[in-house]
Amino acid sequence: MRGFRSRRPGPRFPPAPLPDDPVDLSRRAVRTALDLGFVAAGVVAGTAAEGWAGFRTFLDGGLHGEMQYLERDSEARRSLDSILPYARAALCVARAVPPGGTGNVARYARGEDYHYAVRRDLKAVVASLRKAAPAGAHFRVCVDTAPVLEREWAVRAGLGFVGKNGMLIVPGLGSHVVLGEVLTDLALAPTATAVDGSWEKCGGCRACLDSCPTSAIRAPRVVDARRCLSYLTIEKRGPFTPGEESWLEGRLFGCDDCQDVCPYNAGPRWSEATSAPEASLDPVGMASLDDAAFEERFGHSAVRRSTPEGLRRNARAAVARTGV
Ligand code: B12
Question: Which residue has the higher pLDDT, 241 or 3?
Answer without folding.
Answer: 241
